[in-house]
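Notebook p. 47: complex prediction with heme C.
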Amino acid sequence: MKKLFITSTILASLSLPLFAGSAFTDSEDAIEYRKASFQLIRHNMMDLGDMIRGNVPYDAARVQKRANALAAVTTLPWEAFTVPGADKASGDAKADIWANLQDFNSRADKFQQDALQLQTAAKGTDQAAVKAAFAAFAKNCKACHDKYKAD
Ligand code: HEC
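Predicted complex, structure tokens below:
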């Protein structure tokens, strides 16, 4: 029964029009994707923050792993904001995003650049540089959420 359901779900999704290539089956799928991306960002950032604050021992290899992950996952959410049907207020995404898309995108760009700088710092041995890059990176979250995310 379950198998039949899965098969018919796959078949149904195959017959839907394709959004953004074949990454998203529909707008709800795109919204789920961007939320999942933000969760990946959160998980990797929290562990890094704990190491930087000394809540858990600083482990350079783990710092690098987290910073590498952040450099990748911070590129993910943005395309899912412009999928047809997902380009309006939904969930916690405020309508202001689409009224100020240029500002929103430039914040997203800066965020990704700061993630790359954090990744570069994490490759080195200077913990103070990692700390500074992390602080700069972390500022992006609240700055964007205050304007564009309902809480
Ligand atoms: C350029 C804007 C922007 C930046 C930068 C940003 N966010 Fe967000 N974030 C959003 C928006 C918009 C949403 C709401 C998405 C939705 O509900 O569709 C969101 C949602 C979230 C969510 C909730 C996801 C869910 O499951 O509903 C988490 C967690 C999150 N962000 C964490 C972070 C963290 C941590 C950072 C910084 C390291 C960050 N975000 C940086 C815009 C941003």
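Notes: Residues 24-148 form a domain with the Four Helix Bundle (Hemerythrin (Met), subunit A) fold (CATH 1.20.120.10). Residues 16 and 144 are 33 Å apart (CA to CA).
Next step: compare against the earlier run before touching the bench.
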